[in-house]
Design goal:
The chain has 7 helices and 6 strands; from the N terminus they run ααβαββαβββααα. With 363 residues, it is of the alpha/beta class. The chain has a 6-stranded mixed sheet with strand order 1-2-3-4-6-5, sandwiched between helices. The protein is rod-shaped.
C-alpha cells in the first residue's frame, strides 16, 4: 500500500462493514462476535445505512455506525468509538434503546419487536477495573436468568486485546483492527490468510491507492484528531472544574466548620463572661464579707484587749481581796483567840467568885 491506513478511522470502518460490496464481511464479523448468543448463524443482512463515499467527502458529521437487519428481522448496530468519556455508557445504552424502540410504528403491538444487538469497538479503555477485553450485557436477573431473549450490548476494548495466536474468528477481527495499520498487503501474516481478511485488506488498499479516498481518509483522520484534542481539552477543563468545585465545596465545608467553631467559641466566651461576672460578684461579696470579718476581728481584738485588761484588773482586785481576806482571817483568828481568852478569864473569875461565895457561906 502507498499509505498506511488505520481501520479504526470511522470512514474506513464504515467502508469495511457498511458498504454493500462488503456485506459478506459484515455477516462474518457479526457471527464472529455474537456467536452463541444468536439463535442461529446469520446468512443474509440488509444494510440500513450503507456506506457512501461522497458523504464522507462532503459532510464531516456523517453517521458512521453500521445498522443492518437480517432475514428474521433482527437488528444489528456496529460502531467504532475512538474516545472514552464518562457519559459513554449512557450513550451506548441510549443508542441500543432507541434502535430497539424505533421498531414499533403507530398502532403496532409489542409482538413486532425483534432482538436488537449492539456491538461497540472501543479504542480506549472504558472499564478500567476489569482486565477482560470482551463484555456482553443482556437483560438478566441476579441468578443469571434472562428476562427476554432480545439481544443486548457487546463491548470490545481493543487496548486490552493481546493475542499472539488467533484461535477464534472474533480474535482475528480484533487483531485486524489493532494491527491492520501496520500490515503489508504483499506480506500478510498467516492469521490474515482468509478470504474475509484479504477482502478487508483490499478495502484498506482502496483508501491507500485512490487519491480521492485517501484524501477523505486524511480529512476524517485530521477531523478525528481535532475531536480528540477538543475532547481531551474539554475533559481537562471538566476535571479542573470538578477539582475547583471540590475545592470550593471543601472550602465551603471548612468555612461552615469555622463558622460552627466560631459560634461555639462565642457561646463559650459568653458562658465564660457570665461565669466571670458571677465570679466577680462572688469575689466582691467575699471581699465585702472579708472586710466585715476584718472589722469584726478588730472589734473582737479590741474586746479581747479590753477583757484582758479587765481580767488583769480583776486579778489585781482578786489578789487584793485575797490579801484583805487573809488579813481579815488573821484578825478574826486574833479576835477569836482574844474572845476565848476573855471567856477563859471570865470563867476563871466566875469560878473564883463561886469559890468566894462558897467560903462566905461556910463562914
Amino acid at each position: 500500500m502507498r499509505h498506511s491506513i488505520d481501520p479504526k478511522i470511522d470512514c474506513v470502518f464504515k467502508a469495511l462493514l457498511g458498504a454493500d460490496s462488503n456485506r459478506r464481511l459484515l455477516i462474518h464479523f457479526l457471527n464472529a462476535v455474537l456467536g452463541a448468543a444468536l439463535p442461529g448463524p446469520i446468512r443474509q443482512v440488509s444494510i440500513l445505512n450503507p456506506y457512501n463515499e461522497r458523504e464522507f467527502l462532503d459532510d464531516k458529521l456523517s453517521i458512521v455506525d453500521v445498522k443492518a437487519r437480517d432475514d428474521a428481522g433482527q437488528i444489528y448496530q456496529v460502531e467504532i468509538q475512538l474516545l472514552s468519556y464518562a457519559q459513554l455508557p449512557a450513550r451506548i445504552l441510549y443508542a441500543w434503546a432507541d434502535l430497539y424502540s424505533a421498531q414499533l410504528g403507530s398502532g403496532q403491538d409489542y409482538a413486532a419487536l425483534r432482538p436488537t444487538y449492539a456491538i461497540w469497538l472501543l479504542a480506549e479503555n472504558l472499564l478500567h477495573d476489569d482486565p477482560a477485553y470482551a463484555h456482553s450485557y443482556r437483560l438478566r436477573d441476579e441468578n443469571g436468568r434472562i428476562l427476554l431473549e432480545h439481544g443486548g450490548i457487546w463491548l470490545l476494548e481493543l487496548n486490552k486485546f493481546v493475542a499472539e495466536r488467533v484461535e477464534t474468528e472474533q480474535q482475528r477481527w480484533l487483531k485486524f483492527f489493532t494491527e491492520g495499520q501496520r500490515l503489508d498487503q504483499t506480506q500478510l501474516p498467516t492469521w490474515m490468510q482468509t478470504d474475509e481478511m484479504r477482502q478487508a485488506m483490499d478495502t484498506l488498499n482502496t483508501f491507500s491507492e485512490k487519491e480521492r479516498a485517501y484524501h477523505a481518509y486524511q480529512a476524517r483522520q485530521n477531523y478525528l484528531r481535532e475531536q480528540r484534542c477538543i475532547q481531551r481539552e474539554l475533559e481537562g477543563r471538566q476535571m479542573e472544574a470538578e477539582r475547583l468545585r471540590a475545592e470550593a465545596e471543601r472550602l465551603q465545608m471548612e468555612a461552615e466548620r469555622l463558622q460552627t467553631e466560631t459560634e461555639r467559641l462565642q457561646m463559650e466566651t459568653e458562658q465564660l463572661q457570665t461565669e466571670s461576672a458571677t465570679l466577680r460578684t462572688e469575689k466582691d461579696a467575699l471581699l465585702t464579707e472579708k472586710d466585715v470579718l476584718r472589722t469584726q476581728t478588730e472589734t473582737l481584738r479590741t474586746q479581747t484587749e479590753t477583757l484582758r485588761t479587765e481580767k488583769g484588773t480583776l486579778l489585781t482586785e482578786n489578789e487584793a481581796l485575797q490579801a484583805e481576806a487573809e488579813t481579815l482571817r488573821i484578825e478574826s483568828a486574833r479576835e477569836r483567840a482574844a474572845r476565848e481568852a476573855a471567856v477563859q478569864e471570865k470563867e476563871a473569875a466566875l469560878a473564883e467568885l463561886a469559890r468566894l461565895r462558897a467560903l462566905l457561906r461556910d463562914s
